[in-house]
Amino acid sequence: AMGQAGSDLPTQFVNNARVCWMSEGDGRGRTCVAWPGKMAQDAPGLFRMRFNMHHKVYQHRKVFPFEEKVKEIYVGAFRAHMHLPILDGNGSITAWKDIQESLKLTADGVQLFLQLDDRILKVVEMYHTPASVLAKWREEGVSMKAIEEREKSMCAARKAAQELERRDTIKFVGQMNLSELDVEPKPEDITPEELDKLEGVDEEEKKALIRKIMKKNRMKKLKKQFKAEILQSESVAESDDEADEADEDASTPARRGVDKERRMELARTVLRTRKSKEDGGQDE
User: Fold this and answer.
1) 109 — phi, psi (to 5°)?
2) Residue 258 has pLDDT above 90, yes or no
3) Which pLDDT value is given to residue 157?
């Protein structure tokens, strides 16, 4: 996954890697992965290559929505205690095991863990709790309320898997970088009415509640600010699109050879003139 076209650097590191014992004195030590000293100067290039690949693939803005949807599927499946089949050598189902067993270092746990690849997304999409599993839960004394909660989680996971199949994911609309000063609550982040509600509360508890309310209000203000900036950027984008259309309509010989920024400004002028004429026509 780390390799790039025309580069055999990752292959060299894999082929020359050795597991060695590094002594720390007094009979203590640890194992580590080592390479020949002559490859030391190539190591930064290898990790830079890995960093670039990770940034381009896993931190791409179109990948984030899919990653969040997959997380949603796994969280729902684990909360629902989804059961996966344990297969024998002939591929026959011998038992159904809780997906949470995949976190344990047992024979069944390893087999379950190996099922947690892309195939599990399709399994979740079609999954319904087997009758034998429901019967086992009742025998174990699991309450009806708990079973209903598990079924709700499974429905949420199944819905997320179906949305992922349709590519119905959240849309990336922009980002805003927040500093510690932005997030830090300020005195104006709490109203007199909110302070009045805390009358009679223990002093230490009151301080904690005030900070909690201030932080909550601060985040609300930041979200509102962020939303306003996004709406503004969207309106600018729309006006740019309209200006592009006007730019095509207003292709006069006098404007040939003018740089793009100037042409866009002229296009906006044409657009405003067109709109004013349309408005004037409506008034008449």
Assistant:
1) -60, -40
2) no
3) 92
